[in-house]
Specification:
alpha/beta; 8-stranded mixed beta sheet; 12 helices; 8 strands; globular
Length: 249
């Protein structure tokens, strides 16, 4: 595997499926036998735990970034090969955090995981821009809507200012009737289109169940999209393509 194994998953606009993308792509890669960590780097509006039915113990990323816990104490195995580092949900603990410690968290994880995914908060702030520079590559997520495309364009510019590198674009909730073409958006942004995820009612069901879609409904249209994206990332890093990403038995 090459050195590029830490991915920040980002978007300028909320509600485009950023967290869902991070969790499902990470889960698909873990299904291929890799050790994968997913970090909820949205320090102020954490929601990743719900997608994984995770009830954190005493320690979260808030505690780590406040210097009150070790990374290992805030790392939870949610399924075979996949581990989550949830962010706290209390404003009191959020106030104590120092986002600058995120680089130290990644350094602590180095050598113990094949892939690390950072679920980055939406919007523009120090804590959302910082992960864009510490990751090996940034995956931009958007929907085929003008506002989402406009915001993801701004996020691409933020990545450049943070001296990060954009890996490519993931377009979610796509339909055959969309007026916006994902390939054209990627070309306009001068980045690669990693993959698309079709509009799929099964996604909502997985969110309510707290189970990643690629596990709950692996044959759904969106699951296939996520597995293809996982395969693309595995190929880009020079890793053996995860079996889960190919759809093979």
């Amino acid at each position: 595997m090459s050195e590029q194994h830490v991915f920040a998953v980002a978007s300028g606009k909320g509600g485009v499926g950023k967290t869902t993308t991070a969790v499902n792509v990470a889960t698909a890669i873990a299904g291929g036998g890799f050790r994968v960590a997913v970090i909820d780097a949205d320090l102020g509006m954490a929601n990743m735990s719900g997608l994984l039915s995770l009830d954190p113990g005493d320690a979260t990323l808030h505690d780590v970034l406040a210097g009150e816990a070790e990374v290992g104490e805030a790392t939870y195995e949610v399924a075979r090969g996949i581990f989550a580092i949830p962010s706290g949900e209390e404003l009191d603990t959020y106030a104590k955090t120092d986002a600058r410690g995120l680089g130290d968290v990644l350094e602590d994880l180095e050598g113990r995981f094949d892939y690390v995914f950072l679920d980055v908060g939406a919007g523009i702030s120090h804590e959302t821009v910082l992960p864009l520079g510490v990751a090996d590559g940034v995956i931009l997520v958007a929907t085929p809507e003008p506002a989402a495309v406009n915001d993801v364009t701004k996020t691409r510019d933020l990545v450049e200012r943070a001296e990060g590198e954009v890996v490519g674009l993931v377009m979610t909730r796509t339909r055959a009737t969309d007026a916006i073409d994902p390939e054209e958006v990627a070309d306009d942004l001068d980045i690669d289109l990693i993959g698309t995820v079709p509009e799929d009612g099964a996604v909502r069901g997985s969110l309510y169940a707290g189970v990643p879609l690629v596990v709950q409904n692996p044959e759904s249209k969106a699951s296939i999209g996520y597995r293809r994206i996982a395969a693309q990332l595995a190929n880009r890093t020079g890793a053996t393509q995860p079996k889960a990403a190919t759809g093979e038995d």
